[in-house]
Amino acid sequence: MTMTTTTEFEPPAYTVSSTGFPPGYFVVRNISTGKVLDVELDGKHDGAEVVMFPEKETSHVLGFRDATAENQVFFVDYLGSLCSKASGHAVDVEGDGRLVLRHRRPVVMPFPNRLSHPFPQLHYSATSGQISVSFSYDPAYPGRDRASAGTWRDRTYLLTSVPARKPRGLLDDASDFFQGAATAISAPFAMVLGTNKPDPSASASVAEVQRGEFDLREDELSEVDRAEEDGIDDSPDPLRRVRVISLASGVSNDVGPMARERRRWEVIPLLKAKAMTGTI
Fold first, then answer.
1. Can the peptide bond before residue 142 be classed as cis, meaning omega within 30 degrees of 0?
2. Model pTM?
3. Which of 52, 106, 118, 191 is at a distance of 20 to 30 A from 266, taking alpha carbons?
4. Which stretches of the chain drop beneath a pLDDT of 50?
5. Which residues contact 98 (CB under 8 A, 6 or more apart)?
6. Rounded Cα–Cα distance for residues 190 and 196 (Å)
C-alpha cells in the first residue's frame, strides 16, 4: 500500500496583523456619526456601494445577530482584502473615491485596468483610528496612452465620512435672498476697492463632494477634504456616504476637529459565543 503525503503550501505573505483589522468578523463604526459601514440595500452585485447606516443589530455575538444585518459585517480574506460577509465579495475603490463591492475577474490586458486589477488593501490603525488604503498600482489607471506620473506613491489615502446637510427651508431661501441683495449692492464698491477677489478655498463645495465629482487624480481630493473642513452634518437622512481621499505626504493630520473625527473609525470584533460571567 502506497502512503500518500499531504502537500504543504506556503502561507501567503499577508497576515491578519498586517492590516490592523481583527481576525474573524467585525463591524466598522465611524466616530463622527456613530454609523457603521453598510453595503447599500444589501446589494451583492458588482459595484454595490459601501455606505454608512445606523447599526441594525446591537448584539456583537454572531449567534445572536439578525441575519438581515450581515451587510454591515466585514472580514479580511487570505489575500488581505476587506470583504462583505453577506456576499463574500471584496471591497474596491472606484475612481471617484467610493467604496464598492467587486467581483474577482480574469486578467485582462493591458493590466491593471479599471475592470481587472489587484484589489487595494485597507489598513486600520487602532492608535489613530484611521483607515488608510494602499494601492499596488496607479489608481488613475493611466493605461498605455499616458504614462503614470508616479506621484500616487507619495500620497496618503484615507477613508472619511461625507457630511450631509438637511433640506433647505423657507428661512434659508429668505436668508440667501437678503445676502444676495447685499452682495449685489456692495459688489461695485468691492470692484473699485479691489477687495472682490476669488477665494481659492471655495473651489470645492460639500455638494460637489456628495455628487462625487472628484477622483483620485493628483490634488483634487485634498481640495475636497479642505472644503469639508467646516461641513455640518445635520441631515435627517440616516444614510451617509464615504469616500477615500488623497492627501499630500505630511498633511494628513493638518485638519480641523470636525474633519479629523470624520476620518476616525472604531472596529468592533464579533464574538463567536457569549462570554460566561459570574462565579461558579
1. no
2. 0.74
3. 118
4. 6, 9, 11, 184-193, 195, 197-226, 228-229, 280
5. 49, 50, 212, 241, 242, 243, 244
6. 5
